[in-house]
Write a structure and sequence with these properties.
By secondary structure, the chain is an all-alpha fold. Helix content is 73%, strand content 0%. The chain has helices at residues 2-23, 29-37, 41-50, 55-67, 75-87, 91-103, 111-122, 127-139, 143-155, 159-171, 179-190, 195-207, 215-227, 231-243, 251-262, 267-279, 287-298, 303-315, 323-335, 339-351, 359-371, 375-387, 395-407, 411-423, 431-443, 447-457. α2 runs antiparallel to α3 (41-50), α7 packs antiparallel against α8 and α9 (143-155) packs across α10 (159-171).
């Protein structure tokens, strides 16, 4: 009888011990990590929730909700748990909150809070947070602080900080511009497979900045970056295939890389892809595809795509001809300071095409483009001053603009300038100068210039 009682007591004790283990020891953070590392995520979640007074468990819950590991992705829940852990000085959680406040993930965007959380983690020695803080200051143009934190993290081997520090030296933001130093930091970052640094390194080799020009090295770095999914690297690689630089010209490869970058919403690649479809280069000519890609970039205010889309509406390629829409796209691009679009809009006003004829407006847009060196706009502006259309007639100004355009090789301006010297309008009459400019125009095959030259010689 006594033995039976002992057996019952031992059974009860064993049950108590089993219950205690499963409800206490078995629910510790360490036990949860065992489940997590063994990829038993659902059990890990249970354990972390039961141990949710533990700051480390709070961080793990935030991380699992943020990434959707073992539970449906829930950014709001992630934010809740990260806040709990961050309040108890878990640096990883503080860094994540910095990211979330910066990017408006699960919280309203608040750059001041992002800064504070990054700073809290950085002061606890969190290298990634230091790099994130340096990047935040760089984007906010607080260059002294950007340099401090990027250098701190870069010196400890963080590839993002190394890239950003290289960028500062390349652009001269907060430090004295130094391409060689930029190259050095880019190399450190690129060696750690940072795709942005690989692209930037390729650019320095391509243009010979801080290093001897080497398009073969540029190609290799662009290729590494492109394989690592950097959209800019993919675009540059496609451009080298298109131009046949450091590699045999291959339009199909160019299209393939442009597509990869375009699908990552890289606007220059979307515009380039539109042009490939428009011309049928490397792909079958397809105007609707050209419209599609131009529109994607144009709707995001990429001026070159806006101009190209305007051309397609004007010419009725892939869409019904619509001069009004063409003019709207030209205006958008012109207001974004694209010289070709400014010149085109000037022509539309001059000819009254798609909008009322207005010489004054034409002059405004010709002048904007002319001041940026657009040689046709310079000639047209000279003509407006010569005729007194939209501006007071002024032969001196007409001559000045003809001269600028003529010096850039514009044949119409060369002839117009010759006429000014022949007649002595805006300049002292000088038949030798007139002959000189007519000869330049004749060398370009201009028949009118040849006639004028013959008359002059007679």
């Amino acid at each position: 009888m006594f033995k039976k009682i002992l057996i019952v007591i031992f059974a009860i004790l064993a049950g108590i011990i089993y219950w205690y283990y499963n409800n206490n020891v078995g629910n510790s953070f360490e036990n949860g990590m065992v489940y997590f590392n063994n990829k038993n995520y659902s059990k890990a979640i249970q354990v972390f929730k039961k141990d949710s007074d533990n700051a480390n468990s709070q961080y793990q819950l935030g991380m699992m909700y943020y990434n959707g590991i073992g539970v449906a992705k829930d950014i709001a829940q992630a934010s809740l748990w990260y806040h709990k852990a961050a309040a108890r000085n878990i640096a990883d959680a503080q860094n994540m909150l910095g990211i979330m406040y910066k990017n408006a993930e699960g919280v309203t965007q608040d750059l001041e809070r992002a800064e504070q959380w990054f700073l809290n983690a950085s002061n606890r020695g969190h290298i990634v947070a230091q790099a994130n803080l340096g990047e935040l200051y760089l984007e906010g143009k607080n260059f002294p602080k950007a340099e401090k934190w990027n250098r701190q993290a870069a010196s400890l081997g963080n590839s993002k900080a190394q890239y950003n520090l290289g960028l500062m030296y390349e652009t001269g933001q907060g430090v004295t511009q130094n391409f060689a130093v930029a190259l050095s930091w880019y190399k450190k970052s690129a060696a750690q497979n940072n795709a942005q640094a690989q692209t930037s390194l390729g650019k320095l080799y391509y243009y010979g900045k801080g290093v001897e020009l080497d398009i073969n090295q540029a190609f290799q770095w662009y290729k590494k970056a492109a394989i690592n999914e950097d959209a800019k690297g993919q675009f540059y690689l496609g451009t080298m295939y298109y131009q046949g630089e450091a590699v045999e010209q291959d339009f199909e490869q160019a299209v393939a890389w442009f597509k990869k970058a375009a699908n990552q919403n890289y606007l220059p690649a979307q515009n380039a892809l539109g042009s490939m479809y428009l011309s049928g280069t490397g792909v079958e000519q397809e105007f609707k595809q050209a419209i599609k890609w131009y529109t994607k970039a144009a709707n995001q205010n990429y001026a070159k795509a806006q101009f190209n889309l305007g051309m397609m509406y004007e010419n009725g390629q892939g869409v019904e001809t619509d001069i009004v829409k063409a003019t709207e796209w030209y205006r958008n691009a012109a207001q974004a300071n694209l010289t070709e679009a400014q010149f085109k809009l000037g022509l539309m006003y001059y000819d009254g095409l798609g909008l009322p004829q207005d010489f004054y407006e034409a002059t405004i847009w010709f002048k904007k483009a002319a001041e940026q060196g657009h040689k046709k706009a310079q000639n047209n502006l000279g003509l407006m001053y010569y005729e007194g259309d939209g501006v007071a007639q002024d032969f001196i100004k007409a001559t000045e603009w003809y001269q600028k355009s003529a010096e850039q090789g514009n044949v119409d301006a060369q002839v117009n300038l010759a006429v000014m010297y022949k007649k002595g309008q805006g300049v002292t009459k000088d038949l030798a100068k007139a002959k000189e400019w007519l000869l330049k125009a004749v060398e370009q095959g201009d028949e009118y210039a040849q006639d004028e030259l013959d008359k002059l010689q007679e």
